[in-house]
């Protein structure tokens, strides 16, 4: 019966690694771990302390620092593979994994599958004749020597590359090798693993060649397996289910993908979201469930493409956690400050924070780098925040543990205002009406790209009335919407005159409102 030694390369999250190792070895399989030497020593020691007493766990005899696209990834894999071959003589298969891989079949199903299919599973397409590489370097990965990391030493990487091109310093591919390419997630039989390790000791010329190729983890094992093993004993596919988006990024799986993953004709899946705790729990339990039954439909890729083509809501199988409730809640009060001069609104909020206990957030839907707490990833981009505007505000209410919240909006965001006022929450608005000098409007035109340093005065003179008209139109549109709970302060008014609307808006005593209205340099540009 098949017995697997999993080859795990990892660099973080020791608790997840410990859990993964315990789950995979609970059914009698083994695991060999290479933990990146660049990680903190105490993280590695935590893993060793937890797993050293497990006879089905071993560790690489040597640890090295790994970098994307470097030979170090292949070398680390060879260290872990060598440790597994020597430590687990009864293992029949060696399966390459990462920390975000999880089984999508039971151990019983997995062992039976490998027993019934006496083959090596590795993607191995002809390097030059296939279209596996879509863009970027192709032949240049091989015929030039790459000594530097493209991500961490970009200048040196490309400088070295261009210098070799200029001087014609190319090299030949080893004559007896047909270079192959494919995914690094393979499953090899014991005989194949032993052949590869022997080959690495006998062919230093091949090792020197691959050590200075770029992204060798996509070519080294793929080439050697095809070189050493008869073609009819190789399946040119991976047993790990993974998909890529149109942007070339790995598709991440969430809690709602469980049923879909089980239906795929694969043994493992990558990559599982770190936050998909329910999915991880279910898949961990599945691996030890001998009674589990699987109906293979293998529609994952076509289904993903179909759903992706149907717009944003079709990109997943169920709403994400921040979309499960669409209302802010009838017990909550959302207070919107709107002002075209953002610095004026920010000064007012800064002063208001000192006289009230109400949390205040500045131009959350207008300014990309607005300071925000971690809201589970939804806050990371302006586009995502705007798309899920109610969810973002609801999460802010929850984060600050409050029923009252102040946010700023640009007057142009009338659609957001209408959306918030249509919610069941209590919503109020304070508009700050400012005077706009020609110099300010010219500066505004340059900031938004309507004018530049070389724009002629005639063009600016023609532009100014239009810009001023747009600003006034935005303000008129807000007042024409007849929002309930609408208040307005004006630059031309005295602090005492502005204190009344501020007091009503913030629901604070008049004396506190006067402190806010008397903010020094409130309207200064």
What does this structure look like?
It is built from 20 helices and 17 strands. The chain is of the alpha/beta class. Strands 3-2-1-4-9 form a five-stranded mixed β-sheet, with helices on both faces. Helix 19 packs across helix 20 (510-517). The relative contact order is 0.08. The model is unreliable at 310-319 and 321-325 (pLDDT under 50).
Q: What is the structure about, briefly put?
A:
By secondary structure, the protein is an alpha/beta fold. The protein contains 20 helices and 17 strands. Strand 11 (240-241), helix 10 (258-262) and strand 12 (268-269) form a beta-alpha-beta unit.
Query: What structural category arises from helix and sheet content?
Result: alpha/beta
Determine Rg (CA atoms, Å). 31 Å
What portion of residues is helical?
A: 40-55%
Mean pLDDT level: 88
According to DSSP, the number of beta strands is 17
Determine the N-to-C terminus distance: 78 Å
The low-pLDDT segments are 310-319, 321-325
């Amino acid at each position: 019966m098949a017995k697997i030694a999993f080859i795990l390369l990892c660099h973080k999250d020791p608790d997840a690694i410990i859990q993964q190792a315990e789950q995979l070895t609970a059914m009698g399989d083994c695991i060999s771990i290479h933990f990146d030497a660049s990680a903190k020593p105490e993280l590695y020691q935590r893993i060793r302390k937890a797993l050293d007493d497990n006879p089905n766990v071993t560790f690489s005899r040597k640890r090295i620092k790994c970098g994307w696209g470097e030979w170090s990834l292949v070398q680390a894999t060879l260290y872990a593979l060598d440790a597994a071959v020597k430590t687990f003589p009864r293992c029949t298969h060696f399966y390459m994994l990462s920390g975000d891989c999880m089984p999508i079949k039971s151990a019983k199903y997995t062992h039976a599958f490998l027993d019934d299919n006496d083959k090596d599973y590795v993607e191995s397409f002809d390097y030059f004749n296939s279209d596996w590489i879509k863009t970027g370097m192709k032949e240049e990965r091989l015929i030039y020597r790459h000594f530097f990391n493209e991500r961490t030493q970009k200048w040196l990487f490309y400088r070295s590359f261009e210098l070799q091109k200029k001087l014609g310093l190319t090299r030949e591919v080893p004559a007896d090798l047909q270079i192959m390419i494919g995914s690094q997630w393979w499953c090899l039989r014991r005989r194949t693993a032993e052949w590869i390790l022997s080959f690495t000791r006998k062919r230093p010329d091949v090792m020197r060649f691959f050590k200075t190729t770029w992204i060798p983890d996509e070519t080294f094992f793929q080439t050697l397996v095809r070189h050493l093993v008869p073609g009819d004993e190789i399946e040119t596919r991976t047993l790990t289910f993974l998909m890529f988006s149109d942007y070339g990024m790995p598709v991440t799986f969430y809690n709602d993908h469980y049923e879909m993953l089980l239906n795929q004709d694969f043994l493992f899946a990558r990559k599982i979201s770190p936050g998909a705790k329910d999915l991880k729990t279910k898949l961990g339990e599945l691996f030890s469930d001998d009674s589990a039954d699987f109906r293979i439909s293998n529609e994952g890729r076509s289904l993903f493409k179909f759903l992706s083509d149907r717009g944003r809501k079709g990109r997943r199988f169920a709403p994400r956690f921040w979309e499960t409730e669409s209302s802010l809640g009838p017990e909550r009060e959302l207070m919107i400050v709107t002002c075209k001069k953002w610095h004026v609104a920010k000064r007012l909020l800064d002063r208001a924070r000192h006289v009230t206990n109400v949390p205040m957030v500045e131009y959350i839907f207008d300014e990309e780098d607005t300071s925000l707490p971690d809201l589970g990833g939804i806050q990371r981009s302006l586009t995502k925040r705007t798309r899920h505007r109610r969810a973002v505000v609801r999460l802010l209410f929850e984060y600050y543990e409050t029923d009252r919240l102040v946010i700023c909006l640009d007057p142009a965001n009338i659609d957001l205002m209408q959306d918030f006022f249509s919610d069941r929450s209590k919503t109020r608005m304070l508009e700050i009406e400012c005077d706009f000098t020609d110099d300010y409007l010219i500066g505004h035109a340059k900031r938004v790209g309507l004018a530049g340093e070389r724009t002629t005065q005639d063009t600016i003179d023609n532009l100014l009335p239009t810009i001023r008209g747009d600003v006034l139109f935005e303000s008129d549109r807000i007042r024409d919407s007849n929002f309930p709970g609408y208040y307005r302060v004006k630059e031309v008014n005295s602090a005492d005159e502005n204190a009344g609307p501020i007091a009503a808006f913030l629901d604070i005593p008049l004396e506190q409102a006067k402190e806010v209205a008397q903010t020094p340099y409130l309207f200064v540009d």
